[in-house]
Design a protein that fits this description.
The chain has 213 residues and is an all-alpha fold. 70% of the residues lie in helices and 0% in strands. Keywords: DNA-binding.
Length: 213
């Protein structure tokens, strides 16, 4: 593990390398994303790369953690002013879909982590789920969520967001066909409002107490 930069210039250079990694890993995949490609995209020399990262694997793992931090921040910021759990879910999902549209690399990078760095994959999902579980437990204590295991609900909700985002944000609004059926496609779109509302009705029924469904 390399030492973090101590100067503002160093921080900017490291950030440029991470931005390049997001683009290059998404475009070429881990195996074809060489250090040469990373440094060329960042506009820095190869020697500079090794001042900030020990290897291609290290920058990949740092990128997974960085994307995870940013998407969690986007979701928590969006949901911070919500008055109940359903509002929180609505705001959080909107933020997640917006982040995915802006950073489609999130999908490919995280999926590749299953084979490149399984510990990074587990870290990505466990950090998201951990916050979800806490939020659901608090909502249960306020009577906003029915008698459901918060851990099961957290994983289920994360799965809903990931699959809806893949289908409508990454694949676009049309029916998947040919290259459009590729979940690593770089084209981005948005979740149609009708789809979003159907998803939220599904979530409301799943989380609410039996008498409220």
């Amino acid at each position: 593990m390399t030492t973090l930069p101590v100067t503002e210039r160093g921080n900017r250079t490291r950030a440029k390398l991470l931005e390049a990694a997001e683009v290059v890993f998404a475009k070429y995949g881990y195996s074809e994303a060489s250090v040469v490609r990373l440094t060329e995209h960042a506009g820095v020399g190869q020697g500079t790369f090794y001042l900030y990262f020990a290897s291609k694997l290290e920058i990949f793992e740092v990128l997974v953690e960085d994307l995870n931090r940013r998407v969690r921040h986007a979701m928590s910021e969006a949901a911070s002013g919500s008055s109940n759990r359903l509002e929180s879910e609505r705001a959080g999902f909107r933020a997640f879909f917006e982040f995915t549209a802006q950073h489609p690399a999130l999908y490919r990078v995280v999926r590749e982590a299953e084979f490149v760095s399984p510990k990074s994959l587990r870290l990505h999902y466990s950090r998201i789920v951990s916050g979800y579980i806490e939020g659901l437990q608090e909502a249960q204590s306020h009577g906003e969520v029915g008698d459901i295991d918060p851990t099961v609900a957290a994983w289920a909700l994360m799965g809903i967001g990931e699959m809806i985002g893949m289908r409508w944000v990454l694949w676009g609004d049309g029916e998947p066909s040919g290259d459009d059926a590729d979940p690593t496609a770089s084209g981005t779109s948005r979740v149609p409002e009708a789809v979003f509302e159907d998803m939220m009705r599904f979530i409301q029924r799943a989380l609410s107490a039996p008498g409220e469904r």
